[in-house]
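Input.
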Amino acid sequence: MREALDGLPVERAFLFGSRTDDARRGGDIDVLLYSRAPAFRLAHQVTSRFARALDAKLDVLVVDPDSPTEEQRAFLRTLRLAPLDDVLGNRAAA
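Output.
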């Protein structure tokens, strides 16, 4: 995951979904990124980089920390997040 995020404008990164529950591990990898960068482009960059490194499905959600939409706020309230601080160092701390 480190290579997929290296050098990109990501402020905070989290895992969510089945990867945050030891009893449900498996399936795709769901990643939430907080960034002010254009969401589609950043998600595409991360997904492309990740695909080259590992053979696993990655879903990326990019949220602007300054202006999440109402839908994003509602969705975020439902998530159990696991910080990826081991990936981004102290920048990933919530």
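The helical segments are 2-5, 39-53, 70-77, 85-88.
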